What we know:
The protein is α/β, with parallel strands linked by helices. It contains three helices and eight strands; from the N terminus they run βαβββαβαβββ. The protein folds into two domains: 1-64, 2-Layer Sandwich (Signal recognition particle alu RNA binding heterodimer, srp9/1); 65-124, 2,3-Dihydroxybiphenyl 1,2-Dioxygenase, domain 1 (Roll). It comes from Chryseobacterium culicis.
Amino acid sequence: MNARLSTIILYVKNVQLLKDFYEKNFNLKVIEEDPVWALLDAGGLYIGLHTIGDQYLEKLEADYTFDNNTKLVFEIDIDIESARNELISKNVTMRDIKTFENYPFWLCDGTDPEGNVFQLKSKK
């Protein structure tokens, strides 16, 4: 069997909030949407945003943020410091810029409004 990753689905509290976040901050194009679902074109694969089932949603407090082990990595076409500063100016929580020895990229993690971690990746 050959396989190709086509879509990553995040289960979220507020599809509209996260759709707007990724559309406005990363220029992702919305392919499909309805009240409980949005599909975004992330250039080579899709990001699906699906509302968490009611049986789970009812148990979450209003200010709950997710703690998961998934990170969305976006390779960007501008310098990473400018991108980081732009997101900070929009009140997006961003960490420090980092890199590793013999690694050709700068990296910077941030979090979306529901606590999902994303990373900016820019060539040195």
